[in-house]
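Handout, tutorial session.
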Amino acid sequence: MSMIRVVWGTGSAPTKMASYDAALAAAGVENYNLVSVSSVIPANTDVEAVGTAPDLGPVGERLTVVEARATTAGPGRASAALAWNQSVDGGPGLFYETSGEMDREDVERRVREGLESGQELRDWPFDEPSVIVESSRAEAGTYTTALALAVYGESEPIC
């Protein structure tokens, strides 16, 4: 695996699951089965913020992801943030995710604090961090989901 793509989106719908599905569609990953992993970036892996995923393989296959996701019922706000940085020498790196019913500034501050805390646990020399924040209001009578995903490589068969 040599590429991790960071994608994001929001979606609103009459149910929680439908709003999540709509947010996945906005990010371009609605047709895959997502498998969440913890937040370590392997060495010698490129990370690119792309917004919407390209075609990553056949429908129904598995995608390995780090996921920040918040869903709220309206009226309210859902915010999700994903931060990352890598070693300066092409070594490993970290993703950190934060989400909740909070404003854009609060979720960004919290994800930056989490990433800094994770860095303190490791003896790697880190480069500058990158952050993606997705935030959206939910109108009364609807659910809204905001998400940001780090998608590891291409899809893989489940069966």
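The second record follows below. Compare its token runs with those of the first.
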Amino acid sequence: MKSLILSAAFAFVSLPALADGAKSFAFGEPAPASTATRTVQVVLKDIAFEPGKLQVKAGETVRFVLINEGKLVHEFNLGDAAMHAEHQKEMAAMAGMDHGQMDHAAHGHDAANTVLVQPGQRAELTWTFRQSAPIEFACNVPGHYQAGMVGQLTIE
């Protein structure tokens, strides 16, 4: 009986993560790293991305290797300007929390299009781009986007 209750609790807690992980966006969806046709390294600095602009092709699957060389926690988030604005509201609501000590799931926004990278750490995000759309890659930790930690991603 105890294992049945634990199994049910685990299944219930897993539902939002599974549903979110399956979510696709107009510009594409997450993909397994093994399906990547190209790898792009992006360095997260305080407060900038290198490179600051990226180009991909519609249909291409890109494995982003993210390296945080900064002293602050940063985020790599793919989306359009409206998505970033909404995500910034979520992040601002959590401004009292210590972002440097949290993992991404603890933020409550472990969407497939975003990765939180601790200082000195590496992370990956693999994405299949479906169609041309004006999107950005950005850090939505409070104040970072406004300070210029945003880049343009062109889908050809």
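Points raised in discussion: The helical segments are 2-21, 81-93, 104-107.
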